[in-house]
Amino acid sequence: MGKTEDVTDFVIKLDDGCMCKPQMTEILNMFYGYHFRWANIRSLVFVGTGFASFGNDPTYNPQMDPEAQMAYFQFIALFPNIRSIAYAEDGINTVCPGLAVRFTKLYPLYYWLFHYYRTQLTAVQGLHPLPPKALSSVAYETTDLTLNSWYLGHFIDSPSFDASVLRKMTIYDIIDGINWGWFRSRNGSEVVFSSLEKLSLRCAEQPHLETKVDPTGGFVLRFPKLLSLTVGGSIPVFGDIYRLFHQSPIEILKMGEDLNDLRYIDARIVSRIKAFFLVGRPYSDMPAFIQREAITRFYNMLNMVQHVSLFANPFPLTGVDQMFRLKCLNIDLGADEFPYLHRAIQQLPRLGVLDIVFKRHWSAGKYPYTLLPDENMPAIEDAVPSTYRYGTNVIDVSDLPPISTSLYYVSIAHSGPEMFHRACILIRSLPNLTRVAVHESNALGILEFNRIRGRGVKTEVYG
C-alpha cells in the first residue's frame, strides 16, 4: 500500500444484499492492520443500498450491536480529520431529488460518525437520509453545503450555517421559496455571503405560481464574491430571481429555464459574464413557438462572453456579432439547421472551438422550440458545391472561401452521409483547422478526405 498521506478520499460501497456488519468489520480490520492513522483522509462516502439492510429490520437495536459500536470506535481512531461525510445510493449522484421521498434508514454507523465529526465538517449535505435534527444540533462552519429545501422544510428544527464562511452552496428541490433564515448573519435581517464563490439553485418542476414568491424572503441578501451562478426552473416560482445578483461579480452563469419565460428576466444579468450556458427546459412535451426577441435580447447583451453553450435553443442565431470576444461555442443542432451555421461562424471573429451535438428530439420527433416566422429571418445559404464522398470517385478537396481564420477545432456528433458531407465542407472552409472530431460512422471517410487534402488535420473519433 502506498503512502497514507497521499490518500484523501475514502469510499465504501456495499450493494443490495451485502451483509453490512461483517463486510464493514473486514474493511476496517484491513486498515487497522497497517497500524497507520490515516490523518490526511478528509472525505468519507458511503455508497449502495447495502447500508440500509439492517436499518429496515424492525427488530434491530443498534445499541445492542457490539460490531457496530466497534466499527465506530475503529473509524474515529483511524480517520481523525474527516471534513465531509456523504451517502450516495447509486454512487453517481448524491443529490438526487428522488432520494428525498424514500425515507430509508441506514446502518447507524453513518449517523454516529456524522454526530462525532459534526463540529469539524467543512462539507455538509442536508438531505435524506440525514435526520434534520442532526443538522440543527450545532452551528456549522461549513464551506461546502448541499441542502434539499423540500426535505428540510418538512421539519420544525432548522439548521444554522454561518453565511460568512460558505464558499460553495447548492440548494435544490425548491418549491415555495428559500429559507434564508437557515444562515446566520451578524447584521440582523441582512445576510451577507461574504466568501461564497459558487451557488446553485434548482427549483422543483411545477407550473407557474399565481403569486410569485419574493426571492429575498424578507432578507437583505448580498453576494459580493459570487463568481459562478447556476439556476434551474426558477421563473415559475420567483419570476426574476436573477435580480438578486446584479451587483455580484458573476463570471459564469448557467440557466435552465423555459425559453418562453425569459421575458420575465432582466437581460442585464449577462452583460459582464465570461461564460454563459443556456438550456431550454419547456414545461410541456409539445413543441413551443417563441418570438426571436425572447432569446436574442440575451445574446445582444453578451458583450464580454468568451464561452457559450446553448442547448435546446432554436437556430439560427442572430445578433451574435455582439459576441466578438467568443472563443468557444457548444451548440446542439438539428440536421435542418446546419445550413445556417456558416453565417454564424462568420460573425464570430475569435471563435477557436466549435462543438456541435445532437439536438434532443421531443414528442413526434420535433424540437422543443420553434421560432415564429420573422421577416428578418436570414436566408438559407445557397447549396455548397459537392465535395469528396467516401466510396465514390467524386473527389473535390479544393479550398472554399474561408468563413473563419481563427477556428482550429470542430467536433460534430451527428452521423450519416449528410453529416459527412457537411463536415467536409467545414474543413474546406477553415484554413487554420488542426483537429476535427467526428462520429465513428464517418471516421474512415474523414481520414481519407484529410489524407488527400494533405493539410495535416488530426481526426478524432467517438461513438
TrEMBL record:
<protein>
    <recommendedName>
        <fullName>F-box domain-containing protein</fullName>
    </recommendedName>
</protein>
